[in-house]
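User: I've been trying to design a sequence by hand for this structure and keep getting stuck. Would you show me what you'd pick, starting by listing the structure so we're on the same page?

Assistant: Good idea, let's start from the same input. This is the structure you sent:
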């Protein structure tokens, strides 16, 4: 008979022999709400409340007898009274597991919080104030679900380990709820605060006031440190290190359900433990490793426990892999996982020391999922004294079940006359779970160039790095022929991966482990191009030499001759418009010279190696029935294309490109330079060990690093042209072609001139500025515009260009401005008068220009500032005689932009306020009334056209006498 892990129930019954008795117990110890969506096409849910009741005689049992129903509040403004479905007695009938279940249909998508309130909790819970009246606190738990079409048939996690453990004073206590999510969603755990319902039906709820954290009842941890109360956010193991006094305690935690990074629900478990003060010590389980296994493998793990008091122990297992509920009874087939189910050999029976139970699980393809399986093992001791309480400890075994790899993958080239193809074969793949809406498992084919071994991490699914998908096949396929863009002389590596369909809203899909890679290359029945080198650079009469090898893998008798090479050419590094050049017929006899062709162009097709790169390929033909039949075409290979650009400090930057079936990487490329023109002589000046494009670069500063053919080192002149050629080196990476050795190719000849980036030295600038101390107002009485006089002198230095041909003057009205180009003057001018200014305020700098257009850095920056010239009289006579009729500045003020005047009478009352471009007050009030003769006080704020944009106004304060005929009142 197959064991289905009823050991948990047996252990609960046995533990009851020593479950501590609490006097005056009343009712509910713990509980939680779980849900299950019944159909992907409706919003109907099965909702279950599981309550753990106090069944002690004379106390909680009577209340539990009466709790035949509870009210469910569904979070959509509806509620229903639900009858008790089952009542299972445990712990020697001092506790019971009570199940209430209802089916409810929601009106639409969205979040809903389901709540249940039960009057009341049991009594004497120490951390729920007041502890002697905790039976007056309503028990309340809730679960929040997110209804979304994408979630399909989703279930909340279930907690398979009942919250009925005991702890001992001074010893670390731990509890693991054995939470399991049948859909494979990720679970996260966090602590919460027990809640109470504010009403008996569809209640409002709140955190229990003055709830006390368990550490308030602790003195030290088990090892003497500070006490802690924590929950592992990954495994859900809740630990109190360590209880400090005996008694009954309640606390709560929340299980969050996540899918694809989105929180889709959370469950609150409110639980209770009883702490005793005795000499019994808790047993211990040996740590368990994390496992990763292919679906279909048999998992067998020994679970060992020991008790420091040498008591017998009971090892129990909890988790969805057993398909057993929290009451220890088997669930409906496949309710949590598909069969086969896991087993635990001890069957929950007491064992003597040393104690070991064997966990076994025959996995299958229906167990594949992205999230790991957590299996919780619990060990409880069986004290010899009936008055002693059994203590427990936990360990979690985390198992990840991944899809098995495709087995026995092989590769072989197809028949030689069928073109370029590699055929893959493998054993039938038996692991093919079907997803939601019938989506099938698919096989994906991946390929990469080269046969470098790939080391995959254990349990790493999907293709290894560097592979690209080339095909998607039915899971029933066992062969595939690759004909996509294969190249001769290149080795190809292949892996296969199974992709599983989404089964629950997109979480349980994913990929299998990759197959073992297999490597293959096409047989070398074709010629292989080995050289495309430029012999002559000319716009009309260029010349390129093309070389190739004979078909390396062609054995006598493979194909019949005669044979033909048909040579084609296209313009450009990436040219594809190939045109025929010539045909060479051969018998492939060793004495026949047939592997070289010199391309000189033709009268109708000039070879312009000055302007263009050229690309070549060769078609290979054999004879069948007296006719030439095309076998294949070589990989195309281009000539080397050299280009140049300006480098720093009178240097020339060279860059070259190729497009060849061989690799030019990690090879020394040789640089040649001629100082005498394109016809040479050329001297080798450097060797560059290039890595990979676009690093085919070299900057010539005039040095000669290769002196065997003479030292030509000296600085490059901006007035001279220099000519270059580059010789590249390359090799085929295919092991079959390594015998071809190093492949060398010359670029075209390229002549270039270094750009002169040497700049002149910045000039030294000075400005004829005003001496405000000596300025008199009369200087500006007749002046309507102004000028600033600039003067500068050239400077020199060892790194500066002395050939200065002009200067640029930059100006900004304010010192905060970015200066803009004002004008440009040619040498020998070294001064400039900036005229027609409304103010002298402004800033300047000057730059020098070289003959080659290089501009120096800015000179020193100089600024001029306006002078504040403003004086006021102390009497005026507004009598209309045209003399001294207004209060205004003496003579003519300079550089004034705005004046604000405020006038007060001798009693301090403001009689006038006004703003103007120039001060001119006629002795009237702000309302236009003539002010009488008398003494008045003023404040004048004058804003001058300073160089500082944010300069504050100048303030002038004083008094002025108004004199009017026949009026002496002020």
């Amino acid at each position: 008979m197959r064991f289905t892990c009823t050991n948990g129930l047996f252990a609960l019954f046995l533990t009851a022999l020593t479950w501590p008795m609490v006097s005056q117990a009343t009712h509910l110890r713990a509980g939680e709400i779980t849900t299950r969506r019944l159909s992907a096409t409706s919003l109907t849910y099965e909702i279950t409340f599981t309550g753990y009741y106090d069944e002690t005689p004379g106390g909680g049992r009577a209340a539990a007898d009466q709790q035949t129903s509870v009210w469910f509040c569904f979070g959509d403004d509806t509620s229903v009274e639900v009858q008790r479905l089952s009542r299972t007695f445990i712990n020697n009938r001092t506790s019971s597991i009570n199940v209430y279940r209802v089916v409810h249909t929601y009106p639409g998508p969205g979040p809903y919080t389901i709540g249940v309130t039960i009057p009341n909790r049991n009594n004497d819970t120490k951390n729920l104030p007041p502890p002697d009246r905790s039976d007056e606190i309503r028990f309340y738990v809730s679960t929040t679900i997110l209804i979304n079409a994408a979630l399909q048939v989703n279930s909340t996690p279930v907690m398979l380990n009942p919250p009925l453990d005991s702890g001992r004073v001074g010893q670390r206590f731990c509890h693991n709820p054995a939470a399991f999510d049948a859909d494979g969603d990720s679970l996260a755990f966090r602590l919460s605060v027990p809640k109470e319902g504010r009403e008996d039906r569809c209640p409002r709820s709140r955190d229990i006031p003055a709830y006390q954290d368990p550490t308030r009842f602790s003195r030290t941890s088990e090892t003497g440190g500070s006490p802690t109360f924590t929950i592992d956010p990954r495994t859900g193991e809740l630990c109190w290190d360590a209880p400090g006094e005996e008694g009954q305690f309640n606390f709560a935690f929340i299980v969050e359900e996540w899918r694809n990074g989105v929180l889709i629900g959370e469950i609150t478990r409110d639980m209770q433990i009883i702490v005793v003060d005795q000499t019994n010590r808790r047993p211990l389980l040996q740590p368990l490793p994390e496992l990763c296994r292919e679906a279909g493998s048999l998992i067998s793990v020994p679970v060992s426990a020991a008790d420091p008091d040498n008591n017998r122990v009971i090892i129990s297992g909890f988790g969805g892999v057993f398909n057993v509920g929290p009451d220890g009874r088997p669930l409906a087939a496949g309710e949590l996982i598909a069969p086969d189910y896991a087993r635990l050999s001890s069957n929950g029976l007491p064992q003597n020391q040393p104690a070991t139970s064997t966990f076994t699980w025959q996995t299958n393809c229906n167990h594949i999922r992205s999230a790991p399986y957590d299996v919780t093992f619990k060990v409880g001791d069986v004290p010899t004294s009936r008055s002693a309480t059994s203590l427990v400890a936990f360990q979690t075994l985390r198992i990840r079940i991944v899809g098995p790899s495709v087995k026995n993958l092989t590769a072989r080239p197809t028949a030689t006359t069928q073109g370029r193809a590699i055929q893959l074969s493998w054993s039938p793949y038996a692991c093919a779970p079907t997803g939601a809406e019938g989506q099938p498992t698919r096989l994906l084919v991946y390929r990469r160039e080269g046969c470098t071994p790939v080391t995959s991490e254990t349990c790493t699914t999907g293709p290894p790095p560097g592979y690209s998908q080339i095909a998607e096949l039915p899971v029933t396929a066992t062969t595939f022929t690759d004909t996509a863009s294969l190249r001769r002389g290149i080795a190809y590596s292949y892996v296969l991966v199974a992709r599983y369909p989404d089964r629950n809203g997109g979480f349980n899909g994913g990929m299998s482990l990759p197959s073992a890679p297999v490597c293959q290359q096409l047989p070398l029945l074709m010629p292989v191009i080995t050289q495309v080198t430029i012999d002559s650079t000319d716009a009309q009469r260029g010349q390129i030499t093309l070389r190739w090898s004979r078909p390396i893998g062609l054995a006598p008798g493979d194909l019949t001759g005669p044979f033909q090479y048909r040579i084609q050419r296209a313009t450009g590094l990436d040219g594809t418009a190939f045109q025929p050049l010539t045909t060479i017929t051969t018998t492939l006899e060793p004495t026949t010279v047939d592997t070289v062709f010199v391309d000189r162009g033709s009268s109708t097709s000039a070879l312009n190696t000055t302007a263009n790169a050229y690309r070549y390929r060769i078609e290979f033909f054999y004879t069948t029935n007296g006719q030439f039949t095309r076998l294949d075409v070589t990989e195309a290979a281009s000539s080397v294309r050299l280009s140049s650009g300006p480098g720093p400090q009178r240097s020339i930057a060279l860059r070259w490109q190729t497009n060849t079936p061989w690799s030019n990487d990690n090879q020394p490329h040789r640089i040649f330079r001629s100082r005498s023109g394109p016809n040479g002589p050329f001297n080798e000046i450097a060797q560059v060990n290039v890595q990979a494009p676009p690093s085919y670069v070299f900057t010539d500063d005039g040095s000669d690093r290769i002196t065997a053919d003479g030292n030509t080192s000296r600085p490059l002149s901006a007035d001279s042209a220099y000519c270059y050629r580059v010789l590249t080196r390359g090799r085929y990476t295919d092991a079959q072609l390594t015998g071809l050795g190093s492949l060398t190719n010359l670029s075209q000849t390229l002549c270039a001139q270094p750009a002169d980036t040497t700049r002149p030295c910045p000039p030294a600038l000075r400005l004829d500025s005003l001496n405000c101390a000596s300025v008199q107002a009369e200087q500006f009485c007749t002046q309507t515009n102004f000028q600033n006089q600039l003067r500068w002198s050239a400077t020199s230095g060892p790194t500066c260009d002395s050939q200065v041909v002009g200067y640029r003057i930059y100006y900004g009205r304010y010192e905060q401005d970015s200066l803009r180009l004002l004008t440009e003057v040619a040498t020998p001018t070294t001064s400039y008068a900036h005229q027609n200014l409304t103010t002298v305020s402004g800033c300047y700098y000057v730059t020098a220009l070289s003959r080659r257009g290089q501009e120096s850095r800015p000179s020193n920056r100089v600024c001029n500032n306006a002078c504040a010239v403003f004086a006021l009289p102390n009497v005026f006579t507004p009598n209309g005689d045209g003399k001294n009729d207004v209060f205004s500045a003496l003579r003519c003020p300079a550089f004034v932009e705005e004046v604000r005047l405020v006038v007060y009478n001798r009693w301090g009352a403001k009689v006038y306020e006004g703003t103007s471009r120039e001060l001119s007050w006629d002795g009237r009030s702000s309302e236009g009334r003539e002010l009488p003769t008398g003494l008045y006080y003023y404040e004048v704020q004058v804003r001058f056209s300073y160089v500082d944009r944010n300069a504050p106004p100048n303030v002038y304060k004083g008094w002025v006498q108004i004199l009017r005929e026949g009026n002496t009142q002020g």
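That's my pick for every position. To get oriented when you compare it with your attempt: The first strand starts at residue 28 and ends at 37. The helical segments are 7-15, 60-66.
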